[in-house]
Specification:
Mean pLDDT: 91
Order of helices and strands: EEEHEEHEHHHHEHEHEEHH
Strand content: 25-35%
Structural class: alpha/beta
Bound molecules: adenosine-5'-diphosphate, magnesium ion
CATH topology of the largest domain: Rossmann fold
Length: 248
Amino acid sequence: MATILETHGLSMEFRGFRALDGVDLRVEGGTVHAIIGPNGAGKTTLFNLLSGLLRPTRGRMLFEGRDVTGLPPHEIARRGIARSFQITSVFPHLTVLDNVRLALGARTRLGYAFWLPERVLARFDEEASAILASVGLADQRHRPASALAYGQKRVLEIGLALALHPTLLLLDEPTAGLSLEEIARVVDPIRRVARERTVVLVEHNMGVVAALSQRITVLQRGRVLAEGTYEELRAHPAVIEAYLGGAA
Ligand SMILES: Nc1ncnc2c1ncn2[C@@H]1O[C@H](COP(=O)(O)OP(=O)(O)O)[C@@H](O)[C@H]1O
Ligand SMILES: [Mg+2]
């Protein structure tokens, strides 16, 4: 297993406030690596840096051995890091299949154009179907995205991120706002998607973290508090104290 992503001393200050403070992260290719920590720990800030939305105030990021520090989001995406955004990226009136076909079209510089003729979109049928199958939405393909259950929409967002052909997929709280029943239905698609790429997952639900991830980094107040497997961390005094509480 080779390292696919590393950060060295990654730091982000907002008007003097250190949201991220010297984070050294190492993600092995082909794994699901979870980032956990209390609210305000800096998890989303870390994702904003990794996806190029923010430029770090200090530190470096390397992806596949190359320095990607400070690159803009489109360039980061082009290199193979994609992030699943929330519902904003789904076109509600279009079918599930058309949402994925358009995302694939956008990647090939045709742009997000609703007026793309059917024969152009048809080029993406096969790949769109494969993506929908991989996230378990094949039977929903002809429904308008707006008709999907909330949990299915979250899964569709993951499908749209896959249209970018990422080698590294960033998922920020994919189960947020889902019922227990819906959470169970999101775990399988994520596991399937993770078979073919590396996933970095920010997640609050420890059952989901335990089910999916091989390695976990615990952030607290912008710093790495601990790192290890789920089993290691649930026996880690500082983690129990700071985050897992008695529930671990
Ligand atoms: N754009 C911003 N401007 C100022 N402070 C911010 C900004 N983004 C995040 N923060 C602060 O940085 C800290 C970490 O936030 P965040 O990364 O969203 O934490 P998490 O995702 O772990 O809950 C919080 O205290 C938050 O208020
Ligand atoms: Mg967050």
